[in-house]
ABC transporter domain-containing protein
Amino acid sequence: MLEAKSLSKRYGKNIVVNNVNLKIDSDKFIAILGPNGAGKSTLINMMIGLLEPSSGQITYGNLKVNSSEYKQKIGVVFQDSILDEKLSVKKNLLYRLQMYKNIDDSWFEDLLDEFMLRELLNENYGNLSGGQKRRVDIARSLLNKPEILFLDEPSTGLDIQNRKLIWDILIKLKLKYKFSIVLTTHYLEESEAADFIYIIDKGNIIASDSVGNLKNEYVKSILTLKTKNHESLNRIYEKYKAFSQKKDEDTLVIKLDGARQAYKILEDADWIDFEFQKGTIDDIFLTLTGKELRA
Ligand SMILES: Nc1ncnc2c1ncn2[C@@H]1O[C@H](COP(=O)(O)OP(=O)(O)OP(=O)(O)O)[C@@H](O)[C@H]1O
């Protein structure tokens, strides 16, 4: 398990990561979610041993994060690629592979297949499309069969098809090889699949829990109910007055804790139509900070 305790980073008077505690268990998908400038990259750079914390500790068993043993156990994909634009995909990958000991060939072959890189091997990395580059970047970060894969906003700038493609590959590989993923993102839909989410704003972790628990705690679902039976509509309105609003004489909008409550209301409502919208992670952020995540 990777554990960060009371981790802070200051630049002069500016505290960009403030007293953060977090844990990364094995075979878990952890998302660190926050707006631009929240401190996500700074946090990840400390966890991968690239940046010295101003205070606090990070441990991985008995390894220190700046040790070479630790670096053999992790993989990192940075926001901007660090591969050589002028070298072929193959040379870029083999150059990296040489740095690791005891990696079996079958793993390398498997990565080439999973990330669909065979037909790109002789292309110069610099000539690839954004989506192709990211596939190479991520395959490269997995060459050492890492126990933890860190992804710092890996899909920024990619279109939805490429984002989905990359996540399909990653989730499949994670199921097979059981590594942990630590993702920073401001794409909400990417963190929906996480086992645990840390929400960070202005350097502070403002909430941390499973997606389900965060939604239960911070987000209301919305039931929009249409009925011609005004007596039934008024009865429901009176009962849920604090959480409901009449849109017109036939339509009531009610904020609820979840689907079960909506079902109960619908049973009693003599409805002709309804819509049920579950709260999203974006709503959690909105509830916590009063602002949109991708503002
Ligand atoms: N070397 C540095 N010197 C001074 N300030 C820095 C330095 N690096 C980062 N910062 C500041 O720290 C804050 C957090 O930056 P960081 O890059 O960690 O945020 P982020 O959440 O990753 O943002 P983004 O989503 O835009 O990448 C920002 O206000 C940034 O300007």
